[in-house]
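User: Please predict the structure of the protein below. I'd like the answer in structure-token form so I can feed it into my own downstream comparison script.

Assistant: Understood. Taking the following sequence of 470 residues as input:
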Amino acid sequence: MRAEARLADSAHFWQDALGVLADYLRIPCLSPAFEESWKDKGYISQAIELLRSWAEATLGARARVWVSEVPGRTPALVVDVEASLGRDPGPVCLIYGHLDKQPPLGDWGEGLGPFAPVGRADRLFGRGAADDGYAIFAAIGAIEAAAAGEGHQRCIVLIEASEESGSPDLSAHLDALAGDLENCDLVVCLDSGCISYDRLWATTSLRGLISGTLEVGVLHSGVHSGTAGGVVPSSFRIARALLDRLEDPGTGDVRLGELRGTVPNEVVEAAAATAAVWSPFSDLAVLQGVELEGNSEEDRLLRRNWGPALEVVGADGIPQAATAGNVLRPFTKLKLAIRLPPGVDSDLASDAVARALTGDPPHGATVRWELEAAASGWVAPRPPQWLSAAVDQASMAAFGNPAGEMGEGGSIPFLHMLTERLPQAAMLVTGVLGPDSNAHGVDESLHVPTAQRLTAALSVVLESHGTATK
């Protein structure tokens, strides 16, 4: 199929898909980590039903569409599309996405809201637009285009509902699909990012993650600061001292050896090459005068993709400034997110964090560390020659530029899991989370032209997978 026709077909497909995507954006289907009553609320089921009915109507008799139900777990949507090359059963391509969402976070821009989709210029705003609601539409659009072209092998689209919680439920659904995935030789993950919107970007590595809450207690109840200040130790100061055990407060460098890794030489060379032509941090909403960490763009790429980092992402026990009285607070509770370099063992790192935070607490304060999740990072297996060629061909056809490779600073826990389950499968990890997409933040948006082009590019990869495995 000629590139112009492929892009035109993708744009036409997305004209219809955007309406259903907008309906999905209206559903507050928060991930279980942010909505304990997810089952009673029914929003995840509502989102699955919306996407299920759309997939059935779009694919018709060529596909078997069902909801995977496992007791005590969030459901998952499965779309099993028979091969269009006359080889079914045969090689299988697994295409992954998720439909659960992050919470709104804060105040969105004027006229925007997390669950009120708005189209402006070439963007569609709403929570979950780019992370990762677009995925099922891109997957099925690519399958349809490949079927109309040179054909594709059997494709299984798996859309889970617990990714933003660390994918605790995904393993159960993979167990249920084990028989269908025996011949899986290609995995496509549509939940990653891109440095720019001018080419197809393949993710080569992801960091791991430790998340949990640190609570420091000093009193049964708050006491007037004039009575207790200078006598009862501050829970905030103690928490700050404990965090200093993990990182250097002056530089942000992580101190624990168990949280640091070795950066391969080829990664350093790739970072230098990328930094020479791109400025991936230019779109950060940094206040005037704030100096970024790292000595250069190359150094910052390595720090983001292969370095450990600590962030306090939430707090309890601290009243809002407008309503805070002069009280020495009884406790401080902080939610921590610690990024781990690829290759670092998350279990060993988690044990080191627990020891550092709870051992010999200052002033004998009560200190509790509650681990929420620990996931190791991921390094992409070396792709087979056909896939490398297909990705470049796809990028040229859909974007007009050769494909790019990039490490990612975020985490996709399921990739490490799936690499262990399907060691024989080649992997393509890509996505639309590029400049100003604001995943997890306010004003999240999907760059629609990139979604259209990625769909067209993925159709090329699926066709190549079909011909490579004939």
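That's the full token string. The two ends are 19 Å apart (CA to CA).
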